[in-house]
Records
---
Amino acid sequence: MNDRGLIVIGSGPAGVAAAAAFREYCDDVPVRMLTADVDRPYFRPPLSKEFLRGETEDVSRDGAEWCADHGVELLTGTRVDAIEVEQRVVVAAGARYPYTELILACGASPTPPPVPGGDLAHILRSQRDAIQLRDAARRADSAVVIGAGFIGCEAAASLAMQGLSVTLVAPDEFPQQKRLGAETGQRLAALVEKSGTRFVGDTRVQEITGDSVVLDDGVSVHADLIVAATGVAPNSAIAETGGLEVKHSRIVVDAGMQTFWHGVFAAGDVALGVNTTARRPIAIEHWQDATDQGAVAGRRAAGADAAWSQVPGFWTTIGDETLKYHAWGDGYDRSRLVDHGSGCTVWYEADEAVVGVLTHNADDDYDLGERLIRDRKPAPVPMQ
Ligand SMILES: Cc1cc2nc3c(=O)[nH]c(=O)nc-3n(C[C@H](O)[C@H](O)[C@H](O)COP(=O)(O)OP(=O)(O)OC[C@H]3O[C@@H](n4cnc5c(N)ncnc54)[C@H](O)[C@@H]3O)c2cc1C
C-alpha cells in the first residue's frame, strides 16, 4: 500500500462522488477525505425544505458505514489551511498529509449581506446552520428572508408553512427577474406568496439590527428571525494561494476536472470546468452537477478516462410546488413562457438554439429541453 494515495478536500456531493468513483478503479490505494464539516456526509437540498419544516430529521447520506465500506478515511472538523502542490502535501491544523492525487471539492460558503449588522442574520449552508435556523424558527413568530434566489424562496416558503409571518425581500422587482426574466419572476413570486410569504421586491436592505431589517425606503420590518440568502462565494482561497489558476473565484479545470497541475483536480461549486457538450467553461451550483463533476474527477484521478458532458439541471421545491430547470446558465437572447393551466414551461434561446428550459408540472418539456439544449436545436414553440 502506498501511504500517500488520494486526498479529497470536502464531503459534499462532489467530494463523495469523487471518492466513490476513484474506488471503482482503485481498491488498494488509501483514500482520505478531509472536511471542515463537523458532520458526516449528508444531503443539502432538504435543509431549506423538509428539514427546515421539521418533516425529517435524517439527511445523512449513504449510511454511516459508507466510508468504512469503501475504505475511505473520513476526517471531519478538519479544515485544510494550505495545499503545497510541489511537495504534494495538504496542511490542516498543523498536520501535513501527503498525497499522490488531490481533488479539491470544497464548495462555496454563504456571503452575508454587505450592510451594517449583516453578520447578525442566519445563513444556511451546512446541517449545523440548518439546525440553528430550525431551532430559532421554533421560537419565532416572524421572519425576514433577504434574497430571493432559490434557497431564499425555499426557506421563506418553509418558514411560512411553519406558521411564521414571513417577508421575503429582494432587489429585483420579482424573484430572479434578471436571471430568468420578468414572467418567470412573477410565477416565482406567486409560488412564494401561495405559501403565505409576503414578497417585497425592488428593495435593498440598508441595515440589520437584532430584531429588524431596515429597507432602503427607510421602512423598518420587525422580525424575530432574519435569514440571509444573499449568495455564495467559492472556497477557492487555498487553491489560489497554492498557485492554482483561479478565475471569477473558481478553480480553472479542463473537461476532465484537472487543473494545470498534474494530479490536482477540482469539482463542484468551487470549480470552473469545461463542459464538452457546451464546448466552453460553465460555472454551476447544483447538486447533481457537483456529483457528475466529482465522479469525473475521481475517475481521472484513478487513471481512467472521463469528461464532464451533462447538461446542467436541478429541481427546486417552493412550498408544495416543484420547478425543474436545465440550462447552461450563462445567458439567453429571448424567452417564451407557455402556460399549461396547472403549470408552465419557459423556453430560453440564444442564437436560435435552446439554452435553457424551466418547467412547472411539465416533465415532458423538461426532458425535451435537455435534448434540445444538448443538440443545439430551437424551441418547439415560436419565440416572441
Ligand atoms: C439549503 C440548500 C439547499 C439546496 N438545494 C438544492 C436543490 O434543491 N437542488 C440543487 O441542485 N442544489 C441545491 N443546493 C446547492 C447544492 O447543495 C450545491 O450546489 C452542492 O452542495 C455543491 O456541492 P460541492 O460538493 O461542490 O460543495 P459543498 O456541498 O458546499 O461541499 C463542500 C465541502 O467542502 C468542505 N470545505 C470547504 N472548505 C474546506 C477546507 N478549507 N478544508 C476542508 N473542507 C472544506 C465543506 O465543509 C463541505 O463539506 C442547495 C444548497 C443549499 C445550501
---
Amino acid sequence: MCILGSGASRYICHVAEMRGLARVISGWRLNGKGVRGCFSIRLCVLCQMADVSWTAVCDDGGMRSNLPPQFTSFVGREREVAELEEAVGGCRFVTLTGAGGCGKTRLALQVAEKVVERYADGVWFVELAPVADPERVAAMVARVLGFREEEGRPVLATLCEHVGDLETLLVLDNCEHVVGACARLAEALLEAGPGTHLLATSREPLSGSGEATWRVPSLDSDASVRLFIERAGQARPGFAPTPDETAVIADICRRLDGIPLAIELAAARVRIMHPSRIAAALDDRFRLLTGGGRTAVPRQQTLEASVWWSYDLLHNEERTLLRRLSVFVGGFTLEAAEQVCSADPLDAYRVLDLLARLVDKSLVQVRRSDAEEDRYGLLETIRLYAQQRLLEAGEAEATRHRHAAFFVALAERAEPELAGARGPAWLARLEREHNDLRAALEWLDATGS
Ligand SMILES: Nc1ncnc2c1ncn2[C@@H]1O[C@H](COP(=O)(O)OP(=O)(O)O)[C@@H](O)[C@H]1O
Ligand SMILES: [Mg+2]
C-alpha cells in the first residue's frame, strides 16, 4: 500500500538509505561545533533514529533541568512532598506507585522541582510512555541526557560510563509497561556511580534491587474539595459553592476516592451541570459497576468508571476527535490535530472548536502556550482509553496513516529551512516531535507504506 505522495516516498527511500547510514553516523562524535555547519534533514532524522538528541547538539547553555512546566495549580500534598524530599535524599531509587490518575507524575514533578538545587548536574525528566520497546528505554534516557549511542556497544554501557561521574536525579515517568527494562537500567545506573538518583513513577513497583516503593495515597478530603473547586472555577469562572454545594462536592470527591484525575473530570462538568446532578450521575455509574450495591470499588475501577463516564457524556464529534488524538504519542500542536484528525465527519475548522471543548472538559491538557506555539497532550490514562475506542471504531489504521503522512510532510518542510536563519527553531520543533516522528517512521516501516 502506498498512499503517500511522491515527496513522501522519496523521503521514505531516504529513510531506508539512512538506516544503513545510521550505523556509520552513530560512530561520529557529535558535538555542537561539528554538526552546526551541516544541517540536513537526513542528518536530523538520522539523529532521531539513532536517538541522538538535537538539543544536546545545539548547545543549550547551562540548562540544569528539563522539568515540563505545569499549567494548573498544585493542591495539597504538603506532607507527601516533605516526606518524599527526605526519601529521595536518603534512598537513591524511589518509585511512586498507584493507579492511573492518582497523581504520581504530578507529585514526582513537584518533588523534583524542590530538589533541583541538590544536584550539580541537574534533574532530568524522562517520559517513557512513548517507548513501546523495552530495548529502547536506555536509549531514551541517553537521548534526554544528550549522549549518543556508540557503534557496536550497548547504549546502557555508554550511558553508565557518562552518568557514572554525574550528580543527578533522573525522573523516570510512566514505567509500568517497561518495568523489567527500567529495573535493569536502574540497577546499572546505581552501580555506575554514587551520584545518580532515581525517582520513578509506575502503576507497579519495578522490583529492582535497592528500590524503595512509595504508594501515592488519595488526596485527603480537604485537598480533594479544593482541587474540585479550583478546576470547577476554570470551567465556570466565578464558581463559588454554597456550604450545601460544598457538602455535595465533598461527597463526589469521596465517591471518586480522592483520585485527582477523576476529580478534575467531574469538576470540568460544573460548566453545564450542577454539582448535585454530577453526584447523581456518578452514583448511577457506580451502581452499574457494583451491581446495585454501594460497596467500594478498587481505585483502578473508580478511575476507569470516571473516564468512561466522561467519554460517554461527550458529543459524538468530540468522541471522534478524542479517539483520533490518541495516535499522538508525544503531544501535538493545533496544526497537527487539524491535519491528522480532520476526516469525515470532522473538518479542520471543527477540530479547533472541538479541541477547545475537550480542553474545557479536562480530557486534553494544555502543555505549552506561548507566542511560538500552543501544544496539547493527553494524559496517558486518557490516551490508552481513547486508543482502545479508536480500535473499536475501526479508525486506527486510517488515523495512523494520516499521522504518518503529517510527520513525513513536516520533516520535508523542515529540510530547506534547517540551514537558514530559522534552522534552530525548526530543529527545536523536530526535537519536540521526536517521539511522533519515530512512531510515524516505525508505522510506515511496519505497514510497508
Ligand atoms: N496534588 C495535585 N494538585 C493538583 N492537580 C493534581 C494533583 N495531583 C494530580 N493532579 C492532576 O490530576 C491529573 C492526574 O495526575 P497525574 O499525576 O497525571 O496522575 P498519574 O501520573 O498517577 O497517572 C493531572 O491532570 C494532574 O495535573
Ligand atoms: Mg503519570
---
Amino acid sequence: MFDADVAVVGLGAWGSCALWTLARRGVRAVGIERFTPGHSMGSSGGTSRMFRTACLEHPGLVPLARRSLELWHELQSSAGQPLIDSSGGLLIGPRDGHIIAGTLAASRVHDLPVQMWDSGDLRNRMPVHAGLPDHHIGVWEQGAGLIRPERAIAAAVRIAEAAGARVFTDTKVTGVELVTDGAVVSTPVRDLRVRQVVVTAGGWLGSLVDELPVETVRMPMTWFEPMADRERFVLDRLPVFMRQLDDGVCVWGHGILPWNNAHAGLVKLGLEDSDGRFPVIDPEAFDRSVSPEDWDLLVGRLRTAVPGVREVPARVSVCMYTRTPDNQFLLGRPRRDPRLVIAGGCNNHGFKHATGVGEAVADLVMGRPPSYDLAFCDPDRFG
Ligand SMILES: Cc1cc2nc3c(=O)[nH]c(=O)nc-3n(C[C@H](O)[C@H](O)[C@H](O)COP(=O)(O)OP(=O)(O)OC[C@H]3O[C@@H](n4cnc5c(N)ncnc54)[C@H](O)[C@@H]3O)c2cc1C
C-alpha cells in the first residue's frame, strides 16, 4: 500500500514547481519541506532573481527558459498576483569575455530577439553605466526581467495543494531509502511509502542522495543605498544586468524595485562565482553571519561597475547554491533508477528555469518523453 505515487522532497524553487505540475496533472503527490515555503535558508531567498532567455551558460537551456517563461505566466495568472516582471535585462562585457561570448552563442543558435549596443549606445541609454570602457558592449533582452522568488514558491505550493497535493511543511526528511517496489521517505513524524521519489533539496541534495557530483557553496548578497539622485538608480534606469569587468570579475544586480519589498530603496548587487571564489560549506553547519570579507571584493569594484552608491552595504545576507564540475544542472534518474528523480546542481542560474524544470520532472515521473534535449543535465554524465 503506497501513501502516494510520488514524494517531492524539498519545496524550494524546483520542488515547488515540480509539485505544482504533478498536482495539476492529477498525479497523487506529496511534498515535504523542512521549513516554510518561501523561506530564506536555501538558494531562493533575497527578493529577486533574474529571468532571461539568453542563456549564456549553455545554448541548450534556451528552450527550457522559453517554456519556463510561458509557465511563469501561467503560475502568475493562477496565483492572481505579480510574480514576474519584464523590465528588460542587460549582459555587458568585453566581446571575448564569457558573458558576451556565451550570450551571443545562445542568441545565434536560437535566433533570440536581442539588441547589440556598443559602449556609446549603452552609455547614452543608461547613464548609470557611464564609466563603461569603449571595448565593452551590451546585449539587451527586452523580455528579460525579474522573478519574485519567495512569493513564487509559496504560490506554487499553495496552488499544488489546492489541486490535490498533500504538503508537509516544517518537516525534515531524514532519509530516502530505495526499496524493491519504490521508496521510503523518512521524517521524524512518520515514514512514507511511495512508488517514486523526487529529490529537489537544493544545497542539501548531496546529504540525501549519495555519490552526486555536487558541492554546496556559501554566497553573499548585498544591497546598497544611492549616495544622491535616487531616481538615477530606479529599476527602469538600472534594469537587471550582469557585467564582466576587465579583470574578469563579474558583477550582477539591479536598481531600486518599484514594488514593496524587504529591501526598499536599495540597489541589489553581487558577484558571480566565476573563479570558484566562494567557500564550499556543510549546509547543516555554516556561518550565516556576515563579515567585511563578504563585500570587500565587490566594494572595491563599485566605482567602476556602479558608481554613485555608498561603498558600505546597507544590507547583507547569505544564500547558498550547489556547484557541479561543469556548471550544468543535474536533472534525471541517477543510474537510470525508475524509483528516483533528482533535480539540482543549480549553479547559481537555476531559478529562472524552475517552472520548466518542474514540468521536466513531472514528465520523467510520468514516463513521458522530454520536450527538448536535456542530455547535458544527465546526472550520470560524469561516469
Ligand atoms: C545569491 C544568488 C543569486 C542568484 N541569482 C539568480 C538569478 O538571478 N537568476 C537565476 O535564474 N538563478 C539565480 N540563482 C540560482 C537560483 O536561486 C537557484 O538555482 C535556485 O534557487 C535553486 O532552487 P532549488 O530548488 O534547487 O533550491 P532551494 O530553493 O534552496 O530549495 C531546496 C529546498 O529543499 C528543502 N530541503 C532541503 N533538505 C530537506 C530535507 N531534508 N527535508 C525537507 N526539505 C528539505 C530546503 O528547505 C529548500 O526549501 C541565484 C542563487 C544565489 C545563491
---
Amino acid sequence: MSEKEPPNLELPTCGDQPLWDISLGAFNLPALIVAEEVGLFPFLEKTPATPKEVAHHFSFNPRAAEALLGVLASLGFLAKYRRRFHITEVSRNFLLPESPYNWGTLLRAPPVIPDLCSAIKGILKMPEDKMGERAVEVFGKLKEPGKMDYEQVKIIAEKSHVRSLPAALAVAKWGDFKGVNRLLDMAGGAGSFCIGLALRYPEMEFTVADLAAICEIATQYIADYQLEDRISVQAVDMFEDEWPSGYDAVFFSNIFHDWGRERSIYLGQKSFDILPSGGRIYLHELLLPDTKDSPPALTVYSMVLLFSTTGNLFTAGELDELLTECGFEDITIIHTFGYHSLIMGKKP
Ligand SMILES: C[S@@+](CC[C@H](N)C(=O)[O-])C[C@H]1O[C@@H](n2cnc3c(N)ncnc32)[C@H](O)[C@@H]1O
C-alpha cells in the first residue's frame, strides 16, 4: 500500500467540449482542402449524392467518404437532404472553380498542414482490408512490456486517463450499477473507470483487462488511489485470448468505436457468453447523431479514427442494433459527461 493520501476526486464543474473542439479542429482545414482539390464541390453541385455514390465516383473507401462528408456537413459546407449531400450557399459562392470568389488558392496558401492532408487522402484511397494495419502494429507492441519505449506507453495510457477520469466520475454518478458486484473493464486502459466506480460503490470489485504493457501503468494509477484490494489487473488480448469469467457486468469505454462493426460484434458476443442471465454490458461511447453530420468535433473524430485505429463513431441506433444482434435486451442510454454517453444492455 502506498503511504500517500489518495487524490480527492470531484466531478469537474463544466464539460470538456471546448477542448475536444480545439484539438480536433486541426483537421478541419485539411479536410476542406482535400475535398476542394479532388473536385467534390463541382461534382455535388451537379449531382447531389449519397456517401456510397461519392465513394463510387471518386473511387474512395466508402467509410472514409461517409466520414469526410459528415465533417464537411458539420462545418456548413454541405447539407444532407433525403440521404444525399448537397452543396450549401457558402460552397456555391466560394468553393466552385468558376466562382470569381473561389477560395481554393487561399486555402492551400501557408499555413497548410501537408501531413494531415496526406493522412486524409490516404484513408480515402485505402481498401477496406488494409484499414487498421497501423493499429494492429501499435497495439501489437503493447502485448509484451519492453517492446515499446516505456515513456511512449505512459503517454498512450495518460492520454485516455486525462479524458476518461471526469467521464468516469459521471458514469459512476449517473449510471445504473445497482446489483452489479463484479465488473470486468475490458481494454480498460489506465483503469480510470474502475477507479471512478470503486470510489462511489464501496462493495463492488473490478478487473481491468488490457494489453500487458498498459496493465503495468494501470497498476500504478490504481495504487495512487489505494484501490489495489478491489481492482485487479489482468493482461488479456481481447481478440486472441480466453476472457476471464465470473463477472456480472462487462464494461467497454471508447473501444467499440476503435474497431468497426464486425469486431465489435465479436466483443459483444464474447461478453454475452461470459455473463450470467441478468448480467449487463455497458458501452461508454461518443455518439454521432443519426444524420452523422454534427457536431464538428465528433464528425472529425470519426474520420480520424479511420487512420488512428480502424473504426468510426456509432450512432445510438447502430449500437442498439448491434447489442440486440448479440442477444442483449432492455437497452437504455444516458448522457454522462461532455460528448459521452452510456449505453446499457441486459442478458435475458
Ligand atoms: C482508447 S483506449 C481506451 C481505454 C479505456 N477504456 C478508457 O476509455 O479510458 C483503448 C485501449 O484498448 C486497448 N487495446 C487495444 N487492443 C487491445 C486488445 N487486443 N486487447 C485488449 N486491449 C486492447 C489499448 O491498450 C488501450 O488501453
